[in-house]
Amino acid sequence: MYIALYVVLSIVGLFILLALLAPKKYQVNRSIIINKPLPEVFQYLKHIKNQDDWSPWKKKDPDMKQEFVGNDGEIGFIAKWDGNKDVGLGEQEITNIVENNRVEARLRFFKPWKSESDAITSVEDIGDGNTKVTWGFSGINKVPANIFMMLYNVDKHVGKDFEEGLASLKIILEK
């Protein structure tokens, strides 16, 4: 009886310890330099539908079902998708636009697992007609998912997708 109690208490204690030590937040972003003036780059980026041309996830499922609500390039616009196992089911809503600076969005994933993240695409004039574009997202790891994040490197897994997408964006905008 006491052995079973000690085992249960040990498991509960280990779970609590891991939950306390595991990362509470995550953030992934990548940047690229595009040889185009900032206003031109920003005007393209603030339209979420343009992501279909450079997003690595669109390439993973070109046949995904999409639905759009509102006016693209404006606060409140929502892009919804339902795709294969690589892209899942979710939506992206523009929550803030700071003209010629950044576009903020809320990402809501429903499948393969439910989560929410804050996405940002920002631009910075670095002179000589060049623009630095930074694309990323961040969020909060809730218990018990944060324990899993001790074993899963979000930056490594998603970062390569961001790099691929930004490389495609550079090709498109520099044509």
> With helices defined by DSSP (H or I, 4 residues minimum), what is the helix count?
6
Rg, please?
A: 20 Å
**Quaternary organization:** single chain
The main sheet orders its strands as: 1-7-6-5-4-3-2
Amino- and carboxy-terminal Cα gap:
73 Å
Architecture (CATH level 2) name: 2-Layer Sandwich
Mean pLDDT: 87
Please write the CATH class name. Alpha Beta
- Helix content percent band: 25-40%
Can you tell me the number of structural domains? Answer: 1
Instruction: Write down how many β-strands occur, each being a DSSP E stretch of 2 or more residues.
Output: 7
Largest beta-sheet details: 7 strands, antiparallel
The run of helices and strands is HEHHHEEEEEEHH
CATH fold-level topology: Alpha-D-Glucose-1,6-Bisphosphate, Chain A, domain 4
Protein name: SRPBCC family protein
Keywords: Membrane, Transmembrane, Transmembrane helix
InterPro entries: START-like_dom_sf (IPR023393)
